[in-house]
Structures are given as structure tokens and as C-alpha cells.
Design brief:
The protein is mainly alpha-helical. The protein is built from seven helices and no strands. The chain is globular, with a radius of gyration of 22 Å.
């Protein structure tokens, strides 16, 4: 006898919406937390995030043009990954130049200079704009398919839903963009090219690791190496944060001096 709600057909719509909700929160939940705790208290940081997201969109369009103009990119995933990574890092530098130019103009008009920690918050906002739009463009449209019945698997990740695999990958690159922007801004600001050079190399590596998702049995290795690369950039961000805190000028005592009688 068929009991309503016990069959796989009855459970399918519920389970697919659970997959959709879970993957959505997995990818965009950390971004919402960063926005709420770091960016929301200062509206200009939200403006910076939106501006950086628009800038990333321009860079993505340029990458697509390269794909159309250069025929080898259409048949080689390696070339696609390399060109996309290098174009993304070039865009990161261009955004930093634009950001610095804007605040230089404001300083000429009498605006107070930004402290090292304030610049760090702007870097976080810029990285979050890059990362969120990156995740939305590359993952959100695909995730919409998770609302339908069933799931999708690949030979490389035969035991795990492709929605979850791509979600973990999107989260990795979102976090990477936030940490990478902080490290790159620090290096560009102080003309220490080893910092953006490290970021560019890590970006290429992180992109190449995703090619392992296509190889039978190497999906787990690809995910591990991807997150190991993100962790390395995150560790560099922590070191930058420590160095920035040390550079922060001491707060001035606003109290009134009390004369001392002799």
C-alpha cells in the first residue's frame, strides 16, 4: 500500500529544494556575514563593493572577448583557465589604480587621508564585490537547476552532487577574492610586488586545480588542493593584517592637559 509522503517521488521536490537552499547558504552565507559585520556600518564601503563588482563584470566581459578572438581558447581548458586568471589579476591592479586615484583627488580637496586599517576595510569591500559577483555569475544560474527533480553527477565526482561540488568551488573563489584583494592592495600600496605576485601565482594554481574535477577519481584531490591554496592566501592576509595593525598610528589623546604647579 502506498503511503503518502513516503515514496521517493514525494520526497524529491522537498529534497531538491533542500539542496538548493543548502548550497545557496553555503556559498553566500559567509559573504553576508562579512558584509554585515565589516561593511554595513559604513555605507561608503557598500558603494566600494558595488563599484568593484561592476569592475569585475567589465573584466569578465574582456575575458569573454579573448575567448572569442583567440580560437585555441575554445578547445583548451588550460588556456581558458590561464587567460582568465591572468586577466582577473590585471583587473585587480587596474581597480587598485582607480581606487587610489579617487582618494588622491579627494585628498587634494581636503579630505583626511585614510589610515592603514581603513584602507584594509576598503580592500575587504573591494574583494567582496569581486567574489560575490564571481560566484553569482558562475554558480547562481547553475544552482537554479537544483530546484528540479534529481541531481547531477560527473565521473570525476561520482559520489557527490555536482551542485555541492560547484558550490564548494564557488565558495573557495569567493573567499580567495576577499583575501587576495587585501594582500594585493597591501603590496601595491607599498610597492612590494612580491605580494601581488604571490596572489597572481595562487590564482593561477587555484584555477588549475579545478581541472582535476574533470578527471576520474581526482575530485577530492582537486578540492583539497584548491582549499589549501585559499588557506595559503588567507594566511598571507592574516600576516598583512598584523603588519597593518602595527603600522596604525596611535590614537591621539583628546583630553585637556592639566597644568602642574611647582
Amino acid at each position: 500500500r502506498r503511503v503518502h509522503g513516503d515514496s521517493a517521488a514525494d520526497r524529491a521536490p522537498t529534497m531538491t529544494y533542500v539542496m538548493f537552499s543548502g548550497c545557496f547558504l553555503l556559498v553566500f552565507g559567509p559573504a553576508a556575514a562579512i558584509y554585515g559585520f565589516v561593511l554595513m556600518p559604513k555605507p561608503v564601503l557598500t558603494v566600494t563593493m558595488i563599484a568593484s563588482a561592476f569592475f569585475w563584470l567589465l573584466i569578465s566581459t574582456l575575458t569573454s572577448l579573448w575567448w572569442v578572438i583567440i580560437p585555441p581558447l575554445r578547445v583548451s581548458f588550460v588556456w581558458v583557465v590561464l587567460c582568465s586568471a591572468l586577466t582577473s589579476e590585471a583587473g585587480r591592479y587596474m581597480f587598485f589604480r582607480s581606487f587610489s586615484g579617487v582618494f588622491a583627488k579627494l585628498a587634494e580637496r581636503g579630505a583626511p587621508p585614510l589610515s592603514p586599517l581603513e584602507k584594509l576595510r576598503y580592500a575587504v569591500a573591494s574583494g567582496l564585490g569581486f567574489g560575490v559577483l564571481h560566484a553569482m555569475t558562475n554558480y547562481l544560474g547553475f544552482l537554479m537547476e537544483a530546484r528540479g527533480p534529481g541531481s547531477v553527477f560527473t565521473p570525476g565526482c561520482s559520489a557527490t552532487s555536482l551542485f555541492l561540488v560547484n558550490g564548494l568551488s564557488a565558495l573557495a573563489f569567493l573567499l580567495f577574492d576577499v583575501a587576495a584583494m587585501v594582500v594585493a592592495f597591501y603590496g601595491y600600496e607599498r610597492q612590494r610586488l612580491r605580494y601581488p605576485g604571490f596572489v597572481a601565482g595562487a590564482r593561477v594554481l587555484a584555477s588549475l586545480w579545478t581541472l582535476l574535477f574533470r578527471v576520474d577519481g581526482l575530485c577530492g584531490l582537486g578540492m583539497f588542493t584548491l582549499y589549501a591554496t585559499v588557506a595559503a592566501v588567507g594566511a598571507a592576509m592574516v600576516l598583512v593584517l598584523i603588519a597593518t595593525v602595527r603600522e596604525e598610528p596611535p590614537a591621539r589623546d583628546s583630553g585637556t592637559a592639566v597644568p602642574v604647579s611647582h
